[in-house]
Specification:
- The protein is α/β, with parallel strands linked by helices and 148 residues long.
- It has one domain: Dehydroquinase, class II (Rossmann fold, 3-Layer(aba) Sandwich).
- Helices cover 38% and strands 18% of the residues.
- The chain has a five-stranded parallel sheet, sandwiched between helices.
- Helix 2 packs parallel to helix 5 and helix 3 runs parallel beside helix 4.
């Protein structure tokens, strides 16, 4: 069974309390539940991790080396400057799908720059919690195709 890391960066733990017009009204636990349902439908395992600290995200990736087949990543603000996170993703040699609840291209200029996007397989943004479930579906298909 394929296993995927659902990795969340700074402030994602505050979902449900942040501006609902941008981030939606679901809490992180509610978003994770939606992801679990899709994972069950797909027959894949998901491992959830969230931290407000870049080094902890790096350690999480390193601790899961050899145990996962891909990463769904919402790096939060680290999207724009998390170079050690980027290095860990590169070193993992795993497919990564970058996720954003909102559409960064429709927001402030500084949100339009991602240090992750050039090493990610793709980016899904602007669909709220559905960005995660869409990313998991695509990633599961990619991993299955590439393992044949």
């Amino acid at each position: 069974m394929a296993s995927f890391l659902i990795l969340n960066g700074p402030n994602i733990n505050m979902l449900g309390r942040r501006d609902a017009s941008i981030y939606g009204s679901k809490t992180l636990e509610e978003v994770n539940q939606e992801i679990k349902w899709v994972a069950n439908e797909l027959g894949v395992e998901v491992i959830f991790y969230q931290s407000n600290l870049e080094g902890e995200l790096v350690t999480c990736i390193q601790e899961h080396w050899g145990k996962i087949q891909g990463i769904v990543l919402n790096a939060g603000a680290l999207t724009h400057y998390g170079l050690s996170l980027k290095d860990a993703l590169i070193d993992s040699r795993l497919p990564v799908v970058e996720v954003h609840l909102s559409n960064p291209s429709a927001r402030e200029d500084w949100r339009r720059v991602s240090v992750i996007s050039d090493i990610a397989r793709g980016q899904i943004a602007g669909f709220g919690w559905r960005s995660y479930t869409s990313a998991l579906k695509v990633l599961a298909e990619v991993v299955e195709e590439e393992s044949r």
